[in-house]
Design brief:
With 52 residues, this protein is mainly alpha-helical. It has one domain. 60% of the residues lie in helices and 0% in strands. The radius of gyration is 12 Å and the shape is flat.
Length: 52
C-alpha cells in the first residue's frame, strides 16, 4: 500500500520537465487505473509530442 504523499514524492523526483500527467482530485488508486481509459486524448497528445 502506498500513501499519497509517497507517490507525490516519487512523481516530483522524476528527473524530466514534462511528465505525462498527475491525476488531480482523488486519492483512490482505482481512479488512476481508469483515467487514461476515460481520457485517452491526454496520453495520445503526450506521446505524439514526444515521439521521435
Amino acid at each position: 500500500m502506498t500513501r499519497p504523499e509517497d507517490v507525490q514524492s516519487i512523481y516530483d523526483a522524476i528527473p524530466v520537465e514534462e511528465k505525462l500527467v498527475w491525476i488531480e482530485g482523488t486519492t483512490r488508486r482505482f481512479d488512476g487505473y481508469n483515467y487514461f481509459a476515460e481520457h485517452p486524448e491526454v496520453a495520445v497528445e503526450w506521446f505524439e509530442s514526444h515521439a521521435a
